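Objective 1b. Sequence-to-structure analysis of Phytochrome sensor protein.
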Amino acid sequence: MTTAVNPWLALPDGPPSAARTRRLRAAHERLVTASALPADDAVRPVVRDSWRRSLGSGVDPDGGLPPVELLDAELRAYRAAHPLAPVLPVIRRLLVQDAEADRMIVAVSDAAGRMLWVEGDRGLRARAGAMNFVEGARWSEEVAGTNAPGTALAVDAAVQIYGSEHFRRSVQPWSCSAAPVHDPVTGALLGAIDVTGGDHVASPHVFTLVRATVAAVESELRWLHRERLAVGPVAAGPAPAEARLEVLGRERARLTLPGGPLELSVRHSELLFLLAEAAAAGQGRDAAQLAAEVHAGAAATVTVRAELSRLRRLVGGDLLESRPYRLVGRVRTDAEQVRGLVARGELAAALEHYAGPVLPGSQAPGVRQARDRLLGLLRRAVLTTRRPDLLLRLAQLPELREDAGVWQALCEVLPAGSPRRAAVTAHLHRLRLAGRVR
């Protein structure tokens, strides 16, 4: 009686033979030069199907590097809001702690394939950085071709990819094992956990380790959910007050405190929003930093200190502290809410709650950067879905009416019989005439 081989395992019988590697490379060469899918016995079905999808997505096997879509403050804010952030200690304990000794890299991605955390062996991380396997880069299958985290997200299953099974040649010196992570309550896809390294990473042992880590992570998420539910009903008295700052589509922010709403001045709107953004990343700001973020020209530190003193009297010392200036009370912004919805993949809700640009009249450099980051984050997430309904809603945002990339994507995904296609095509034609489309 023969034992069935797990189709998701890359190397169930130990290290690959030279003959197998030659067959894989020959099959890959025929695919990329003649678009000829390999025979059933040449590559595993999961790899053959992934190669076909990569080819259909237009991935160039010798093309450029996967794009880095999240950088610096935007990456930090996005990670802080992501539902996998609270369980990162579990991943580090089970995988990262031994990664350097085991010559491995551990990567955690979001549901769109963007790398949020890349940790482990320093030497390997430096080498992997040459192919943009770094935090903030997108390794979804339709962008980077066949790879374990991208393919795991595409097929919603744990999978291993060995060496020459990768679609892009620059990735073929590597092997990887990855598994998707789901919200244990809603079932929503949250991202993937990946281990990357040499041939040993494609072993059954590492595959089992990655799947066990995912099980532990989902168990921890379930426990955290139950803990949140338990705390609510049994809490004596009212829950701790949480201030809310509304900045989307508003020239002046509205701060809602337990005592009621406050309409802030333009300058106080800017300062409080920038402090809320810093607090979301666990940081504060000194007066010089805030002056640079508020004033486009010379940093008027004295003026900023005076404004902050007035703001502190207005909102109370229990919310705003100095040395450095930071929020000690919880201030949740509507911009942060939209980021969180995007991080969870709830894009319809994100579009619903996106009431407009962050403080649209503000010219403060820090506010302008945050405004552009949020719109860019929402735009990229919706474009990635290729969903006509979401793209239609995105295209109707006033700030994207002249965005040729959005309208081009919408034109590509609308079916020929759609009643909206004529209007979309006409608008795209106007953008072409205006020179906004190459």
